């Protein structure tokens, strides 16, 4: 396993970039959205701690790390990954002094070590991407026997943030050195950074393909011949990159990166050395017969011949003129030459994904003519094109495309029950297929993603393509900027309709109070509460015999619904409701305020547009500023932005082409939330209970006082506990949730297990699974369900039912008693259920026995606005930040139960648009396109308008003329 030398790699990169540029020139892609294969360069920082330095004190640690990273690089060049991923080492740090003295605390607790290392490497990383020491990912290698969620050693080998790549505080991993197989651990953890989950039947991929083990397998098996990437891993990393989450990987590495060794690892570290690395001992020898050493390495340790079930490394000597390759002993021959991949032929256009309502057709090709081999490069260029098809409207009354997809699961049982499914729409994950039953008691994510052509943004033509919400213009072209005006006319000027606005602020009466009747044909209907309240919005037919939303005192979940045969989006954010209906609606609708009496109505604002009936009016266009964006931070000093929009005096916002581009004002900013950030308590996740059954066990979590993030660094610093409010300090210890009664079992043999957690993915290995015949397990975040109770509306005081009242032990009327629900743990919560009237539970009605275990509610992601870019005119590349918070779907309270693979970006690359000359001169050219100023630069002295609109060009010309005059005098 080895990679070409530095010069050869750079030559390949230049060839690939030239190929991509040639593709851009040779094909007109205006009508198609491309899925493009680009060269991605992962610039890695590798850190070896003091335990590594102590163990390898007699060897060259840097060469060892480069040998390992060479193997990692080769695995990411394997064609089964479906992308060009070039892993290069740009910096190695060997910690020969105590880590604590350098601000890094490394312990056996994998979670704390990951947290500490991620913060440490972020402060170390230069923000300028062009800096030679800037890294995209940080890899810590340690000889500590780390363990996830515990302070004592165990079989954990690695830990990493899922989908953390290119996020400065999450693009990192911790890896335990156990010999040459460290390369597989690092590769696996990098896979998690790229958004990959473990290969299990649950996500549609097995852990192996024949005798090849998949890299993201949850279990290690000894009879493996080579490794490869699964279809699921290929899908996950491609989606991650296509969503723009790998922006930091698009720059080419600097010239001063480290060169990988040219020899296979087994030639540099013989079998005896590999034994010492695997068993972490000073003295070890080989007891494998030469003919078996390539498939399984046996070592004599403390006088016993034993094995970790790992094969010897490629290149290990196995006989005269023989070495190990792919777990076979083969003759030593010249290294096979590289075979670069080349694109095959384009396929035919696929069948349209929908028969009406706008679907997607795909044209694709594969990198298989030939497929890259022996370290050859993957194809660069477009692999897919998309076009929109069957745009005709579906028949009236036809179910939505999401409804059709959910109804396909009606014949499948869920937890032993049959349900009739309808769609549940989550704006934070618009291309996930969530379905709920008709009673809204459970929410289930079915399938991998919504099908191509599924609408993903109410009020637009945007649709899901390959699991990503893609922008579609009103001209049915993907990524087009063509938009409809308020009147529903593509490229319209907004003069053919009129907007009706109003406010209902009455506080009289209970129940359904009619606000307004909106006529058939209306568009752009917006109904929203002015402030937070416990009241609700209802919508029904004009004659009130049927409701579309929140009718008959039954409150529905927020989501997407059909109102008068057109999609509507119902939103609820912290007791503030909003309804959007793009329209046009096919019949009159009545809007209601559902008033709950003792709750105040702060006002219900509504607006809609109707076709204009009066004579033609000349439109009046002008530039206006938008509302201020959300503050980039909640404290410590942030920024708000207001952009200029083209506005028609009666119709509102229209396309920019209708306003005078010469007079368009720049965006404006202002400071906000300037108060200092207070210290706060940070809590880590609860550790796993030390026992799996029985009573009386305790579990712990970390609690730290930290400073809140500021706009400048987004870093939280640990503070002394006295800096935080001691009265609000969270508990560090609690009783474990109720566990099952212990049963006598045979002694268990440790299994090889990898287990994903909420915020991190753990890669655990134990060497005994093959002998035990056990099966590994995996826990996947975000693939569970949410069970909820339907909300019944009461107009008077709500009466609480007491389920825990006192009762005699021998009550004549036995009934079920329930305790409070436990905290949500691993997607479930529990409570005690007992029969109050007798010692015998069966005396109570078993048919009415309450649930003892239920699935917890899943969370949803909410995002603030992006901060301003921290790049400058001299450092063009920088970052902008935003807050991403997890909330409960039903009650909108803060939650920790969100799917981290779907977490929106918190940090995004950005670029400074002004040149230093513009900033220094204090003005800029305000005419678009920019070549106009260059063409009129000779009129700078004679025209005040040119001097004003072409300020930078004129000032530069003036300095250039003065310079030329001085030069002529010198000459």
TrEMBL record:
Record bears the keyword Signal: yes
Domain Peptidase M12B: 40-253
Disulfide bonds: 118-172, 147-154, 166-248, 205-232, 275-299, 287-305, 294-324, 318-329, 352-389, 356-394, 367-379
Binding residues for Zn(2+): 188, 192, 198
Essential cofactor(s): Zn(2+)
SUPFAM superfamilies reported for this sequence: Metalloproteases ('zincins'), catalytic domain, TSP-1 type 1 repeat
Cellular component terms (Gene Ontology): basement membrane
Predominant cellular place of this UniProt entry's protein: secreted
Binding site for Ca(2+) 1: 43, 129, 136, 248, 251
Alphabetized InterPro entries for the sequence: ADAMTS/ADAMTS-like, ADAMTS_ADAMTS-like, ADAMTS_CR_2, ADAMTS_CR_3, ADAMTS_spacer1, MetalloPept_cat_dom_sf, Peptidase_M12B, TSP1_rpt
Binding site for Ca(2+) 2: 43, 129, 251
GO molecular function: metal ion binding; metalloendopeptidase activity
Residues forming the catalytic site: 189
Subcellular compartments: Secreted, Extracellular space, Extracellular matrix, Basement membrane
SMART domains documented for this protein: TSP1
Keyword field contains Glycoprotein: yes
Assigned keywords, A-Z: Basement membrane, Calcium, Disulfide bond, Extracellular matrix, Glycoprotein, Hydrolase, Metal-binding, Metalloprotease, Protease, Repeat, Secreted, Signal, Zinc
Any one GO biological process: extracellular matrix organization
Free-text comment on the cofactor: Binds 1 zinc ion per subunit.
Name used for this protein in its record: A disintegrin and metalloproteinase with thrombospondin motifs 7-like
Organism placement in taxonomy: Eukaryota, Metazoa, Ecdysozoa, Arthropoda, Hexapoda
């Amino acid at each position: 396993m080895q990679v070409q030398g530095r010069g050869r790699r750079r030559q390949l990169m230049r060839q690939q970039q030239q190929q991509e540029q040639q593709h851009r020139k040779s094909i007109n892609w205006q009508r198609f959205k491309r899925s493009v294969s680009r060269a991605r360069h992962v610039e890695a920082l590798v850190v070896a701690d003091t335990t590594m330095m102590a163990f390898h004190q007699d060897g060259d640690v840097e060469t060892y790390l480069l040998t390992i990273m060479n193997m990692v690089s080769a695995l990411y060049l394997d064609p089964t990954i479906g992308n060009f991923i070039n892993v290069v080492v740009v910096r190695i740090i060997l910690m020969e002094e105590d880590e604590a003295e350098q601000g890094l605390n490394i312990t056996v607790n994998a979670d704390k070590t990951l947290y500490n290392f991620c913060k440490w490497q972020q402060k170390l990383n230069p923000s300028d991407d062009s800096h030679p020491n800037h890294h995209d990912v940080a890899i810590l290698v340690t000889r500590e026997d780390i363990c996830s969620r515990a302070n004592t050693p165990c079989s954990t080998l690695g830990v990493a943030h899922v989908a953390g790549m290119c996020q400065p505080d999450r693009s990192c991993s911790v890896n335990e050195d156990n010999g040459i197989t460290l390369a597989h651990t690092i590769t696996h953890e990098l896979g998690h950074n790229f958004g990959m989950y473990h290969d299990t039947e649950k996500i549609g991929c097995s852990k192996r393909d024949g005798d090849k083990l998949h890299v993201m397998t949850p279990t290690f098996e000894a009879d493996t011949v080579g490794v490869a990437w699964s279809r699921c891993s290929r899908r996950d990393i491609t989606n991650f990159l296509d969503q723009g989450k790998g922006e930091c990987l698009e720059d080419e590495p600097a010239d001063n990166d480290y060169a990988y060794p040219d020899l296979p690892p087994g030639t540099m570290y013989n079998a005896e050395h590999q034994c010492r690395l695997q068993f972490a001992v000073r003295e070890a020898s080989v007891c494998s017969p030469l003919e078996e050493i390539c498939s399984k390495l046996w070592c004599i340790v403390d006088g016993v011949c034993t094995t970790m079930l790992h094969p010897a490394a490629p290149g290990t000597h196995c006989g005269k003129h023989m070495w190990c390759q792919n777990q076979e002993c083969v003759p030593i021959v010249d290294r096979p030459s590289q075979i670069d991949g080349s694109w095959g032929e384009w396929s035919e256009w696929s069948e349209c994904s929908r028969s009406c309502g706008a679907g997607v057709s795909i044209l694709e090709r594969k990198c298989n003519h030939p497929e890259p081999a022996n370290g050859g490069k993957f194809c660069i260029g477009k692999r897919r094109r998309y076009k929109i098809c069957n745009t005709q409207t579906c028949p009236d009354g036809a179910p939505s495309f999401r409804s059709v997809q959910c109804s396909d699961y009606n014949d499948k049982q869920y937890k032993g029950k049959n349900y009739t499914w309808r769609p549940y729409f989550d704006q934070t994950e618009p291309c996930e297929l969530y379905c709920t039953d008709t009673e809204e008691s459970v929410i289930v994510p079915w399938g991998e993603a919504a099908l191509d052509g599924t609408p993903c943004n109410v009020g637009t033509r945007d649709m899901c393509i390959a699991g990503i919400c893609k922008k579609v213009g009103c001209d049915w072209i993907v990524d087009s900027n063509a938009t409809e005006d308020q009147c529903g006319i593509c490229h319209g000027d907004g003069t053919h309709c009129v907007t009706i606005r109003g406010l209902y602020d009455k506080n009289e009466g209970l129940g359904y109070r009619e606000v307004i009747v909106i006529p058939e044909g209306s568009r752009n209907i917006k109904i929203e509460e002015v402030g937070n309240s416990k009241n609700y919005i209802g919508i029904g037919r004009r004659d009130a015999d049927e409701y579309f939303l929140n009718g008959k005192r039954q409150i529905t979940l927020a989501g997407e619904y059909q109102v008068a045969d057109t999609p509507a989006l119902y939103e609820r954010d912290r007791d503030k409701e909003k309804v959007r209906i793009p329209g046009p609606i096919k019949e009159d609708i009545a809007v209601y305020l559902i008033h709950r009496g003792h709750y105040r109505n702060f006002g219900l604002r509504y607006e809609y547009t109707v076709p204009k009936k009066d004579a033609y009016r000349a439109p009046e266009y002008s530039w206006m500023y938008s509302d201020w964006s959300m503050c980039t931070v909640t404290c410590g000093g942030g920024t708000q932005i207001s952009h200029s929009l083209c506005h028609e005096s009666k119709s509102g916002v229209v396309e920019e082409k209708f306003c005078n581009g010469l007079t368009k004002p720049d965006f404006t900013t202002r400071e906000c939330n300037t108060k200092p950030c207070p210290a706060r308590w940070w809590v880590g996740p609860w550790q796993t209970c030390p026992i799996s059954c029985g009573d009386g066990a305790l579990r712990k979590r970390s609690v730290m006082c930290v400073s809140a993030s500021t706009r400048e660094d987004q870093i939280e610093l640990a503070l002394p506990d006295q800096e935080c409010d001691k009265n609000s300090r969270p508990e560090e210890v609690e009783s474990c949730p109720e566990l099952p009664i212990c049963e006598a079992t045979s002694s268990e043999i440790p299994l090889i297990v990898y287990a994903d957690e909420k915020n991190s993915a753990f890669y655990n290995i134990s060497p005994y699974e093959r002998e035990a015949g056990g099966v590994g397990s995996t826990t996947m975040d975000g693939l569970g369900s949410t069970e909820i109770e339907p909300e019944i509306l009461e107009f008077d005081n709500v009466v609480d039912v007491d389920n825990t009242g006192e009762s005699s032990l021998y009550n004549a009327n036995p009934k079920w008693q329930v305790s409070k629900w436990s905290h949500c743990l691993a997607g479930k919560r529990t409570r005690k259920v007992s029969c109050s009237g007798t010692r015998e539970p069966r005396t109570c009605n078993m048919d009415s026995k309450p649930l003892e275990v239920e699935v917890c509610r899943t969370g949803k992601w909410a995002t603030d606005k992006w901060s301003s870019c921290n790049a400058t005119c001299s450092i063009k590349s920088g970052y902008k930040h935003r807050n991403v918070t997890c909330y409960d779907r039903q009650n909108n309270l803060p939650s920790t139960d969100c799917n981290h693979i779907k977490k929106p970006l918190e940090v995004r690359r950005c670029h400074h648009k002004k040149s230093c000359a513009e900033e220094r001169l204090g003005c800029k050219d305000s005419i678009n396109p920019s070549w106009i100023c260059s063409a009129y630069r000779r009129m700078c002295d004679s025209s005040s308008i040119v001097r004003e609109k072409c300020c930078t060009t004129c000032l530069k010309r003036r300095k250039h003329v003065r310079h030329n005059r001085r030069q002529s005098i010198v000459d």
